[in-house]
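Putative proline/betaine transporter
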Amino acid sequence: MTVLRPGGKPQTDTGSDIDLRSSLSGRQRPNDGTGIDAAARRRVVTASFIGNFVEWFDYAVYGYLAATISMVFFPTADPQAALLSTFALFAISFLVRPLGGFFWGHLGDRIGRRTALSLSILIMSAATFCIALIPGYASIGLWAPALLLVARLVQGFSASGEYAGASAFLVEYAPANRRGIYAAVVPASTAAGLLLGSLIATLLTATLSAEEMQSWGWRLPFLLAAPMGLIGRYIRNKLEDTPAFRELAEDDTVVHPPMKSLFVHHWRPLVRAAGVVLLNAVGFYVILSYMPTYLSVELGLDTTRSYIATTVALATYIGFIFLTGSLSDRFGRKRVLISASVAFLLFTVPAFALLDSGSFVTVLLVQVALGAMLTLNDGTLPSFLAEMFPTRVRYSGFAVSFNLSNALFGGTAPFVATLLIGATGTDLAPAWYLMAAAAVALVCVCLAPETSRSPLRMD
């Protein structure tokens, strides 16, 4: 089968023109005959990175400042209960993500990827900015967590379309033999958003007192959402929709709505995809979002050092992501995804045991190692999921499978981890939870076909 190009002429994309490095460096290359030149791909990579970066910075700040937010929005008599309540709101906001996946998937497959992505970034930025304006529990009582929940639900609804849409956008623009490294831009930009959030949290906790943080310091990162969101929206509006979608839009064949087609004709890959996402869902939020709270609250590490360790791990994670994307292009998606699951099954518990060593250097090295293990899954997953579904339902299939697993297991991961520690009395409980997720993902990957060598399908 062949990749569809504008003008209705199918062509095989050899991917010989440019790779991601030349896209990012800005060097102009000649058109390769596929209808996409270097400048167009460079704009797509830049816009996808910045847009996803903005959305996930907005979304991640809540996790990094959870300990402070718990003191602002809930009664402080029982700090553990306040923290659990904060993570419960974090988890509840994920319940809307499957609904958002249906909405954004349908919108992206019927109206266009660019339209969906441009709208989602505005909604995310507005909700995040509003969080900065909510008074605390001491001022308005239970209205404070209620308003926070509303804002988090809106954030969850917006985020449900971002990851899937940006991945589909990049895969449909990428050369055939570079889809893995192009799609790796999405988790890399997600990590970059987390990195900025971690840097800001580190700076705030290092320079402000606990009283200043609870009074006004925690609001500063949320206020950044408005200008960042407008910049991301502007850049995305300058793009043209993908060649694959434009070709599909020119086809006047009557087809079922994307969601109906997805569940009737593509339910098997949908189930497998949701299972593969499970490791990403649990691993991402335990290792990259919950970890500073785990280190400071559960293990007693200094708060600033906890943020520093996570910040360094995130910086190395971004580099590992691109390496993983390249490996998936060379060796195939399945081999890399299987390696990720096996690594977590073998090394998660020993790694978490070392976190309690009391040595900051050990904690730092363990976090870097866990992040590297996670990139084997995260760096491969966007291209793998996008390739599993044809163009007509690609956005829908990706969005539903990704958000369903994240709603059930990702958003609940900090809450479940905290709850399991309290119930079992062991700080290793999150590690066992990660291993269970890796086992499920391993089975689903083994049942899925290899997708890296096949051209993208329309139907």
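thats it. The chain has one domain: 38-238+257-447. Residues 1-33 have pLDDT under 50 and may be disordered. bye
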